[in-house]
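Review form for a predicted model. The reviewer records the input and the model, then writes brief findings.
Reviewer: anonymous (R2)
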Amino acid sequence: MMQMNCKERMWAVLNREPVDRVPIHAVAVDGVTYDEVLGKPPRSAFEIIDELVEQYPMIDIFGRIYKLVNDHGHIFPYYVDGMIKNQKDWEYFPSLFPASFPFRTYS
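Model under review:
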């Protein structure tokens, strides 16, 4: 096989043709392009986010639960609920600080 330049190599990979070596590509390629190359059906960004939300619930380190909201094409997290609802939940919620954390108290 003849030596390829980087552009020929990338086009060959995108067309699923053999290449002389594995190409290195540092420019970001969006998910739509990946889906087209892999033969997957087209999906919108909102469908992809919906799939991610189902797999990975959005819970921050304080136990706040969020859902993603589409506000006229802008996606942002919207506070829904919290994991701490009573004293028992608070006692069983993982501490944000290790037991050895040097708290300072001021009087």
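Findings: The chain is about 30% helix and 20% strand.
Further findings: The two ends are 78 Å apart (CA to CA).
Recommendation: see findings above.
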